[in-house]
Amino acid sequence: MICLDRVWAVVLRQIYLLRGSWARVVPLFAWVSVNVVLWGFTSRYFESISATGMGLLPTLLGATLLWNYFDRVMHGVTTAFLEDVWSRNFLNLFSSPLTTGEYVLGLVLTCFFTSTLGLLMMVAIAAWGFGLTWTGDIVALGGFLAITLAFGIALGIMASAMVLRLGPAAEWFVWPVPALLSPFVGVFYPQRVLPTWMQAVAKVLPPTYVFENMRAMMSGAPWSMTDLVVGLCLSAGYVVLGMLVFSAVHRSVLRSGLLARYSAEGAS
To answer: Is 254 within a domain?
Structure first.
C-alpha cells in the first residue's frame, strides 16, 4: 500500500535540495535554453535554404523540444537518485518505513515537476525568439508528450537500478544514454534513411513513433492513431519493467550486503 505522506517526504527532500543550491536550479533552465537557441538558429538557416514544402523551423525545433524533454526527464529521475548516493543518504532513507515503490514514485514526481518547468521555458523561448506555435492536433501533441515523459521515466528508473547494482561509479554509463538512442529514434530525420537493422531496433523504442508522426503533422499529413497507441503501450510497458527491475535489484543488493557500499566514504 502506497503511503502518500512518505512519497511527499521524498519529493520534499528534493525540493529542499533545489532550494538550497543554485547549482542545482540553474541547469534546469540553462542547458535547455542553450539547446533551443542553438537549434532555433540552425533551423532558421535550414528554413532559409529549403525548397521543400515542409517547414523546417517547426519540425527541427519541435523535435529539439521533445528530445530535450526526454533527456531532462530521464536524467532528472537518475540525478534525484544519485543525490542520495552522493550524499550517502540512501541507507538512511530505507531505515524508515519508506518502501521501494514510494521512493521511486517520489523521484518520478519530483522529476516531472522540474522537467515540466524546463519544457515550459523551452516553449516560451521557442515562441518568443522563433515564432514557434503549437497549432496541431491537441490529442497528438498530448500523446507525444505522454510517450516522451513515460519513456524518460522508464529509462531513468532502469539507469538508477544499474547504478544501484554496479555501484556509484556506474553513473558514467547513464549520461550518454540519450545520445546513444537518438540515431535510432530519428529525432531529426525519417526512419527510411536508416539501415534495416537500425529500423528494427527503432520499432521497439517509443520515441520513434513520436518523431515520425510529428514530422507528418508538421508537413500537413495525417498522423497515425495506431502509432500513438503503440508508442503509449510500449512506454507503459517500459515503466512497469523499470519498476520491476529496480525492485529486484534493490532486493538483491539488500540480501547480498552490497547496499552497504552506499554509506562508505570510498564507494566505487
So the answer is: yes
User: What is the tens place of the pLDDT at every residue in 216-261?
Assistant: 887 777 888 999 999 999 999 999 999 999 999 988 888 887 766 6
Is there a domain that residue 268 lies in?
no
CB atoms within 10 A of CB 182: 17
Range(s) of the domain holding residue 76: 4-263
Nine cell digits for residue 148: 516522451
Is a pLDDT exceeding 70 seen at residue 118? yes
* CA angle, 196 then 182 then 237, to 5°: 85
Q: Is residue 53 part of a domain?
A: yes
HEC string of the chain? CCCHHHHHHHHHHHHHHHHCCHHHHHHHHHHHHHHHHHHHHHHHHHHHHCCCCCCHHHHHHHHHHHHHHHHHHHHHHHHHHHHHHHCCCHHHHCCCCCCHHHHHHHHHHHHHHHHHHHHHHHHHHHHHHHCCCCCCCHHHHHHHHHHHHHHHHHHHHHHHHHHHHHCHHHHHHCCCHHHHHHHHHCCCCCHHHCCHHHHHHHCCCCHHHHHHHHHHHHCCCCCCHHHHHHHHHHHHHHHHHHHHHHHHHHHHHHHHCHHHHHHCCCCC
Q: Count up the domains in the chain and report the number.
A: 1
The type of residue at 96 is S
Instruction: Say if CB 148 and CB 234 are below 8 A apart.
Output: no
**Contact, 103 vs 210, CB < 8 A?**
no
Residue 265's pLDDT is 45
